[in-house]
Design goal:
- The complex is a heterodimer of chains A (319) and B (445).
- In chain A, 74% of the residues lie in helices and 4% in strands.
- Chain A is mainly alpha-helical and 319 residues long.
- Chain A has one domain.
- Chain B has 445 residues and is α/β, with parallel strands linked by helices.
- Chain B folds into 2 domains: 254 residues, 3-Layer(aba) Sandwich (Rossmann fold); 128 residues, Rossmann fold.
- Chain B is 36% helix and 16% strand.
- Chain B has 12 helices and 15 strands.
- In chain B, helix 6 links the parallel strand 3 and strand 4.
- Chain B is globular and about 65 Å long.
- Classes of the chains: A mainly alpha (319), B alpha/beta (445).
- The interface between A and B is medium-sized, with 32 and 35 residues.
């Protein structure tokens, strides 16, 4: 392993270790907030695979988040499926959905792709509302009583317990983060970056860029779905509002803030935006103005996001 | 229930013996202010002070300041602040001042759960209160249950009474949509006709109307001639009206959202002067001046109201007092801005819920947010049978079903006359009752 590789793996291990060891230091409020951030950061990690490394911007990613959420939630709600099988079903639903969506949507590029993602996302949102009889539509449904306990290797964990929430969220986040790191550092990841930089040239070199983009979209959607499934199971609520366009815009903002095309950027962006919103709300009801002002500053002076700028100026080894 | 409709007194009808002893205490100490306000259970004040507890009762107020619920949220906040100020004038809750800690949830269920988290763990409030929109309630309730913090919603949704939430969620200050429909359906069929066509929004709130009104119509020997669901994204409604059968006697409409003015105008253009009787829910028109252009067609039609917007239509001293304290003028608009119309049929729930909390705290002996005190409060509230009409419950007397964590009350039918809502019928509480489908008291705490 090269020095650069060792440094990269050490950095990621250190971040995950810090998150693990920080638990006793976190007050109750921040403890569960960080658990939420970790789940939402998974969503952003998935988004980053598509935007940051493949150069495809989506405004319909809430569809994949919601596919994972409903893929896990509906079997629990209607059939009392356990938490772990439900998580697997949620991930499978989003993977299948992302692959099928990619077969159609990846026939387009650029702005057309953006529009297609948005339209599919909206159509999916309305589908959830239309089939209200099964999905319970805009009101959504609660999973609390059916999945209180998570059984792992004979041990029972209460999902209502903050410690269980935190460690489960950290576990899922770790898997998603390391999977994205492995992907972007693999030969396939290099092809994705090449597509981001110049797809025509990449194709000219003999790579099947359609398949590579399809892979990126499927991985991205699967990770977003894992986040959705985890959110449903840990926070006990499934609702169509998670499929709205607002929830497609969030991961875009989180990723841009932290640094698109950096593996740790989504975590940083999600955490900062989460707390920025909270503290801005303490100051004013027009908190979105504060959030918007911060984003403007970012776009004007650090368009590559925080870690992207850091990589440009100080640490070019950052993945 | 021991409610007395015209009385000044306003207390829960449980714990009679305990209440009498507090009355004794009241006579010796706080007769003036409390008796003037009709709040005899304020007799809890000296006991609490004697125990040395001066910490404010902190109530987290989950408010829709932004998002789709902002119009409701603005009035909910005004009402809650007015109620808290009045309670503090009376000496607070169990002698302790009330402090509202408001937090915007953006009318978003994800944010709603985060607000409950923040209020409970960072702000260390005693209770969380005030949520309106159903999806926010359903998104927030699981976390409230996990944190084991009493969560008082003012939502009018059927979700509390349906039993699908948890033992920490209560709705003691506003009736639910099922009971509202059940109460007015009989009057509608008896006075307007039995062949009913329904137009409702194509989402959960509309489905509540569809399902519960259909059941009530069929139970009353009527027929539903059409059930027309309109997608939430719809902006033109003309194409739906031809689907209403010609023999329809009553058109029942519930259209919530910004499209309501267009809906009413197009309904008027479609039917002209040969329209069926029209009955709707004022939810569609909360915050909207009845004199708005396009609403002329509603003249002569009927609307459900939980509390009459127009002053003098339910003329009690309690209602007048409440209206003045919240700052609502005779036409239902803010006294400061005639264009700022209130959500009068919903916001009273914030006022009444705060007083229900007050009574539960005082009768349970609740002092601190400990598991034991919260258990006592919940069990005490579950033992309540209702609330008498008074300044603390100006909408009218309430029956409280502890199994359902839900109150039941009177409803009003108003006729639109030259841009004003005039009450033509007031239902009895019994008209709104239905067979309970849940029993929260059997759930573990």
């Amino acid at each position: 392993m090269s020095t650069s590789s060792a440094r990269i793996w050490l950095l990621h291990a250190a971040v995950l270790l810090a998150l693990l060891l920080a638990q006793p230091l976190l007050p109750e409020y921040h403890y569960v907030n960080v658990a939420r951030i970790l789940v939402l950061a998974c969503y952003a990690v998935g988004y980053n695979v598509l935007l940051g490394y493949t150069g495809l911007m989506s405004l319909g990613h809430a569809m994949f988040f919601a596919l994972g959420m409903y893929g896990a939630g509906l079997p629990v709600y209607y059939h009392g499926v356990g938490a772990l099988p439900a998580l697997a079903l949620g991930v499978a639903a989003s993977a299948l959905g992302a692959a099928l969506f990619g077969l159609i949507a990846l026939r387009t590029r650029g702005v057309a792709f953006l529009i297609v993602t948005m339209m599919f996302g909206q159509a999916f949102h309305l589908t959830l509302l239309h089939f209200n009889v099964y999905t319970l539509g805009d009101q959504g449904f609660i999973l609390s009583e059916t999945i209180r306990t998570l059984d792992v290797a004979g041990a029972a964990f209460d999902l209502a317990d903050s410690r269980v929430k935190y460690n489960a969220a950290l576990g899922v986040f770790s898997v998603c983060l390391l999977a994205s790191l492995l992907l972007v550092r693999s030969p396939v990841g290099r092809v994705l970056v090449a597509i981001r930089e110049n797809e025509d040239r990449t194709r000219l070199l003999g790579y099947n860029t359609y398949l590579a983009r399809l892979l990126a979209l499927t991985v991205s959607g699967t990770i977003a779905g894992a986040a959705g499934a985890t959110y449903a199971l840990l926070f006990s609520y499934v609702g169509a509002s998670f499929a709205s366009i607002l929830h497609s815009i969030y991961p875009l903002l989180w990723t841009l803030l932290g640094g698109a095309g950096t593996t740790l950027g989504p975590l940083l962006g999600t955490g900062l935006m989460f707390y920025l919103e909270i503290y801005a709300r303490d100051l004013t009801t027009a908190y979105l103005v504060v959030v918007g002002a911060v984003l403007l500053v970012l776009v004007l002076w650090a368009p590559r996001g925080i870690l992207g700028t850091l990589r440009d100026r100080k640490a070019r080894w950052l993945p | 229930m021991g409610a007395s409709r015209g009385g000044d007194e306003s207390t829960s009808s449980s714990s009679q013996a305990r209440r009498i002893s507090r009355r004794g205490a009241l006579k010796t100490g706080l007769a003036g202010a409390a008796a003037g306000a009709g709040l005899l259970t304020v007799g809890g004040i000296p006991a609490a002070r004697a125990a040395g507890s001066d910490r404010p009762i902190r109530i987290g107020f989950q408010v829709h300041r932004t998002g789709i619920g902002a119009v409701y949220g603005r009035w909910y906040e005004r009402t809650a602040n007015a109620a808290a100020a009045y309670i503090n004038e009376l000496g607070g809750i169990a002698g302790r001042p009330v402090e509202l800690v408001a937090e915007d949830d953006g009318t978003d269920p994800r944010r709603g759960a985060e607000v409950v988290e923040k209020l409970a763990t960072r702000e260390q409030v005693d209770f969380v209160y005030g949520t309106l929109f159903s999806h926010v309630v359903i998104g927030s309730a699981p976390r409230a249950g996990e944190l084991k913090i009493p969560y008082f919603v003012v939502s009018e949704g059927y979700h509390v009474a349906s039993g699908k939430l948890n033992r920490y969620v209560f709705q003691p200050g506003i009736t639910d949509v099922r009971s509202q429909i059940t109460a007015v359906a009989g009057w509608m069929m008896g006075n307007l006709g039995k062949k009913v066509a329904m137009i409702f929004p194509d989402y959960a709130f509309g489905y509540d109307h569809r399902d519960f009104l259909s059941a009530a119509v069929e139970a009353g020997g009527g027929t539903v001639t059409a059930r027309i669901a309109i997608p939430p994204t719809e902006t033109a409604y003309s194409k739906y009206f031809p689907r209403i059968p010609a023999d329809t006697e009553v058109l029942y409409h519930v259209m919530v959202g910004p499209g309501v003015l267009t809906f009413v105008r197009e309904m008027g253009e479609h039917f002209g002067s040969r329209r069926p009787a029209v009955f709707g829910f004022v939810d569609s028109l909360e915050g909207v001046p009845m004199t708005s252009p396009g609403l002329e067609f509603l003249d002569g039609t009927y609307l459900w109201e939980a509390m009459p917007r127009q002053a003098g239509q339910y003329d009690t001293p309690h209602e007048r007092f409440y209206r003045e304290r919240v700052g609502v003028g005779p036409d239902g608009a803010s006294i400061r801005d005639p264009k700022d119309v209130s959500t009068y049929s919903h916001m009273f729930g914030c006022w009444e819920t705060l007083f229900a909390i007050k009574e539960a705290v005082e009768q349970s002996g609740y002092r601190d947010p400990t598991p034991a005190d919260r258990k006592a409060l919940i069990e005490t509230l579950e033992g309540f049978h209702g609330f008498n009409e008074g300044r603390s419950h100006p909408q009218g007397p309430k029956v409280f079903d502890g199994r359902l964590h839900q109150c039941f009350g009177q409803q009003f039918v108003s006729k639109v006359n030259a841009g004003k809502l005039e009450v033509v019928h007031r239902t009895a509480i019994e008209d709104s009752r239905y067979e309970p489908a849940a029993d929260y008291t059997k759930m573990a705490l």
